[in-house]
Amino acid sequence: MTQVFLADLIIGAHAGVLVSFPTDTVPALATIPEKAGLIFAAKQRSHDKPLILMAANAEDLWPYVKGSKKEYKVWQEVAEKYWPGGLTLVLPASDRIPKVMNPIDPTTIGIRVPKSAIAQTILAQTGPLATTSANFSGQPPLQTIAEIEAQFPQVLTLATTECQGETTGMGIPSTVAKWTGINWQILRQGAIKLDISSDN
Question: How large is the average pLDDT for residues 3-22?
Fold first, then answer.
């Protein structure tokens, strides 16, 4: 049985083990960025599919990206408009990002703030975590704690009692928008329709 209480899940995350918790989109599989290799191994995930750095708020994420003053202004405007929410921004990575999060192209990193009280509570105490959907690579995201437990018995999942009152995610992955240096390129259309015409 790998269901644990919130405090134990946070301790486990700090210790570098794999954890799972609900978000506003699909349940996350997460660990500290330095241990991101555990996620690739557990999911049987190809290294050309980078992970997302998720945090409780935008301020926790800006140190992990780098850009000009003008670019930061554009990024922050988009973040203020759509976060917390189902939008992942792929931006130039700062040297604080461990290469293991994006082994093929360590120059970029996807960042997101989830619109989920339980996820924000966890992330506020762990700091930014390397995350992805809880499922084997190429398969549909798992939706329930029971499914996650069955597929990933080694992962610490949040006890059902700890999730009461938390609305479950919509089951649709986040929209992924990559900064090209000039404007946004939609890599995956998901939960949020990004109005990119006004963000150029």
Answer: 94
Q: And the tokens for 10?
A: 């946070």
Please report, for the chain, the start and end positions of each structural domain, with discontinuous segments joined by +. Answer: 3-199
| 3-state SS, one letter per residue, for 103-161 | CCCCCEEEEECCCCHHHHHHHHHHCCEEEEECCCCCCCCCCCHHHHHHHCCCCEEECHH
CA 126, 71, 36, 134 dihedral sign is positive
Element (H, E) at 7: helix 6-14
Residue located via tokens 């762990």: 126
Q: Compute the C-alpha angle 103/107/109, nearest 5°.
A: 80
Question: How do beta strands 156-158 and 87-92 pair?
Answer: unpaired
**Which residue's structure tokens are 């999060």?**
101
Q: Return the CATH number of the domain spanning residue range 3-199.
A: 3.90.870.10
- Residue 171's Cα: distance from chain center in Å? 14
pLDDT confidence band for 20 (50 / 70 / 90): very high
pLDDT bucket at 200, cuts 50 / 70 / 90 = very low
